[in-house]
């Protein structure tokens, strides 16, 4: 009984593989599929931009910033670094500077901004791009 099923299966599979291809389908165009990586670009053809302009963006950071939370003397600097995603949202917010309280407050002030950016582009495609904003705070 097992041999009958085996022979029957072989005969059917020969019939399936022996079929000819219909005319006109033997030359299909080559399909190039490229996987979009979640790569973060630092150099793009069209830079990410804040919809109301960079001056308005800086004003929003200043408005959200609470100077009384920062402890320090003289001049403090930090650099805000974040990723503008394809949908315009900001992710991966970091602050690099020597004053930890300044860094924390800068991250908090930036995180409060809910406007979406216009993402950067390469070859007309929206891409993730890294953006840097320098901040300076002078103590009196």
Description of the structure:
This is Protein TonB. The protein is of the alpha+beta class and 140 residues long. It has one domain (39-138): Fusion Protein Consisting Of Minor Coat Protein, Glycine Rich Linker, Tola, And A His Tag, Chain: A, Domain 2 (2-Layer Sandwich). The chain has helices spanning 2-17, 54-64, 100-111, and strands spanning 40-41, 75-84, 90-97, 120-122, 125-138. Strands 1, 2, 3, 4 and 5 form a 5-stranded mixed beta sheet that branches. α2 (54-64) packs across α3. The relative contact order is 0.21.
Q: What is the CATH C level class, in words?
A: Alpha Beta
% residues in beta strands: 25-35%
State the end-to-end distance.
97 Å
Radius of gyration: 29 Å
- What is the count of DSSP helices, taking H or I runs of 4+ residues? 3
> How many strand elements?
5
CATH domain topology: Fusion Protein Consisting Of Minor Coat Protein, Glycine Rich Linker, Tola, And A His Tag, Chain: A, Domain 2
In sequence order, what are the helices and strands, one letter per element?
Answer: HEHEEHEE
- SS-based class: alpha+beta
**Average pLDDT level:** 83
CATH architecture: 2-Layer Sandwich
Which regions have little confidence, pLDDT < 50, spanning 5+ residues? none
Helix amount: 25-40%
Task: Work out the oligomeric state of the chains in this entry.
Answer: single chain
Profile the largest sheet: 5 strands, mixed
Q: Can you tell me the overall shape?
A: elongated
């Amino acid at each position: 009984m097992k041999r009958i099923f085996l022979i029957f299966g072989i005969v059917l599979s020969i019939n399936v593989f022996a079929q000819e291809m219909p005319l006109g389908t033997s030359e299909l165009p080559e399909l190039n599929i490229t996987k979009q990586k979640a790569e973060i670009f630092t150099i793009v053809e069209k830079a990410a931009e804040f919809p109301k302009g960079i001056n308005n963006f800086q004003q929003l950071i200043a408005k959200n910033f609470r100077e009384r939370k920062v402890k320090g003397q003289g001049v403090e600097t930090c650099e805000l670094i974040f990723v503008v995603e394809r949908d315009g949202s900001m992710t991966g917010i970091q602050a690099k500077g020597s004053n930890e309280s300044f860094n924390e407050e800068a991250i908090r002030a930036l995180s409060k901004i809910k406007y979406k950016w216009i993402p950067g582009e390469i070859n007309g495609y929206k891409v993730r791009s890294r953006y840097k904003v320098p901040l300076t705070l002078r103590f009196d």
